[in-house]
Amino acid sequence: MGGYFSEILYGSKSLLVGMGITFREFFKPTVTVQYPYQTIKMSARFRGHIELIADAEGKPKCVVCGMCERACPSGCITLGSTSVEVEVDGKVKKKKILSKYELDFTKCSLCGQCVENCNFGALEFSKEYNLASTRKEDFHFNLLKRLEERNA
Amino acid sequence: MSLTLLNVIVAVVIAIAFAAVNAAYLVWAERRGAARIQRRPGPNINGPFGLLQPPLDGIKLMTKQLMIPGGADKILFMVAPVLAMAPAIMSFVTIPFSAGIAAHNMELGVLVIFAFASMGAMAILFAGWGSRNKYSVMASVRAVSQNVSYEIPMLITAITVVMTTGSMDLKAISMAQSGGFWHWNIFPSLHSPLMPISFIIFFICSLAETNRAPFDLGEAESELVAGFHTEYGSMGFGLFFMGEYANIVIGASLTTILFLGGWDCPFGMFPGVWWFLLKIYLLIATFIWIRWTFPRTTIYGLLNLSWKILIPISLFNLLLTAGLLKVF
After folding, report:
1. Which residues of B touch A28 (CB under 8 A)?
2. For A7, nearest residue in chain B (alpha carbons)
3. Interface ipTM
4. Which residue does chain B place closest to A14, by CA atoms?
C-alpha cells in the first residue's frame, strides 16, 4: 500500500519536472534557420559538386592532363582540349588549353578522387547545396562556363 | 413564439461560429506553442505571426475531394465526422459564459454535457468501423475503451461537485462559487479537503476524454498511421479536428464552471465573461503545454491509471464529501 502512494507521488513529481523543463524552453529564443530566407555558411569540409579554380588571370589552372577523368570511378567527367600556339622565349610552341569540362552530376558520388588526383590544384568542392530540379539535364554542368560566370 | 425560434437560430449560429473560430485558432495556437517549446518559430509565413494559416488551411480542406475508400460502410463513414462535430456544438448551448450569456440554461446542464460528450466515442467507433482499415479499427477500439474508462472518474468527480452545490444547473454551480477565489470548488472548503485532487482528476479525465496527448492512443501516429481518421481527407478530416478542438473548449469550460468559479473574479471585482474566457484559455494553454511535454502512454498504462488510481481516489473523495455533508 505504501508503494502505491509513493509511486503516485514519484510519478506526479516527475511529470511536474518535465512540465517545468518545457516551460523554461518556451521562453528561450528559437534556434532554427529560416531556410529560404536565411542560409548558413557551409563548413570547410562540405563537399558539393566540383568546381574549377581560376588562376590570377581568371583562366582555369587546369592543364588538361586528364588525371581527374581517369580517376573518376563513375566516369562522370568529360574533358576536351584545343591546342593553341604560344610564343615562349622566342620559340613558337604548341600548348593544350581546356576547351570543355563537363560534369555529369547525376552519376557523381562525391568521392573526391578527382580533387585528390589533381596535381595542379585546379579542382575544389563547391559549397553549393541548393541543387534541385525536375530535369536530368540540369545536372550536367559545364564547369568552364560556370567559371566564366563566376569571373564575370 | 417567433422570437424564441429566432433566439434558437441565433444561439446555434453563434455556437457554430464560436466552435469553428476556436478550432481554427486553437490549431494555430497549438502549432505556435509546440514550436516555441521545441524552440522553432512555428507557422510564420502567412500573415503576421502566421495568423492567416488557419483560414488558408480551411480553404485547402474544403476544396479537396471527399473520398470514400472502396469497401467502406458509406453511411457510417459519412455520419462519423458529423457525429464528432454536432454533439460538441450542442454542448455549447447549455454552457453559461456569464450570468447573462447562455444560449439556453438547463436545470440538468451537467447531465446534458456528459450525455453529449459520450456521443464523441460513438463517432470514433463509427469512423474506425466504417473505414474498413485495420488501423482505424484498432484505434477506435482503443479510443472507446479509453473513453469508457475515463468517463467513470470524470462523472464521479462531477457528482462530488454536484452534491456540494445541490444542483446540476451549471449556472447555479457557478453562482454558488461567487465572491472570491476562496469560494471556488478547487480549494479545500468545508465540503472536502480532497477537492484539489478532484480537480486534477477531472482535468486528467478531460484530457483523456478529448483524446489528447499523452492519451492520444486513438490517433497514435507512430503505430496506427493516423488512427481512426486514417481514411479521412478533406472536410471529413476537418470536421474531426473541429470536433476535437470544440471538445477541448467544452472540457475547459466545464472544468472552469465546476472547479474554478465560472465567470467569478478571484478578487471579487468585475465578474463577467472576460474572466470566464481568461480561465478557459489558461486551461487550454495548459492542455497544449501538457501535450508537447509528455510522450504517449501505452494502452495498459492508460487503463491502469484510470482503474487503479483515478477511480479509487475519486470514489474515496465522493464518500468523504458525502460523509462531511451529512455531518455538517
Report:
1. 39
2. B309
3. 0.72
4. B294
